[in-house]
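Can anyone check this?
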Amino acid sequence: MTAYAIAKLRDAAPHPEIADYIERLPGTFAPYGGRFLVHVTPHEVKEGTWPGGVVMIGFPGIVEARTWWDSPAYQEIAPLRSRHIEGDIILVEGVPENYDPAVTVAKMRAATAGGE
C-alpha cells in the first residue's frame, strides 16, 4: 500500500545549505522507491491558514518510507534543512485500492448507537 512523507514547511530565507539539501534529497529516497509528488508548488488554501510550502514524497509502502527517514543518507542531510526551515513532517500510509468509506461510517454508527 502506498505511503507518503508529507511536509508542511514554513517560509525561510534562501540559504546555501537548503540548496545542498534539495540537491541531495532525491538520492536519499531513490533506493526506497520514493519520488516527489509535490515539491513546494503553489497551493490554494480553502479553509484555515497554511503559510509556507508543501512537499509530498510517495513510497511503495510505509516500511520504505520509515526506512528512508531513518537511513544514514537522509539523517546526514536532514540538518541542512532543519537548521533553516521549521516545519511539520509526517509519514502516512494510504488507503487500499478497494477502500470503501462506507465501512468506516458503519463502524462509527455502530460505536455511537444508543449514545445520542
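Reply from J.R.: I decoded it. The beta strands are 3-9, 35-39, 53-59, 87-93.
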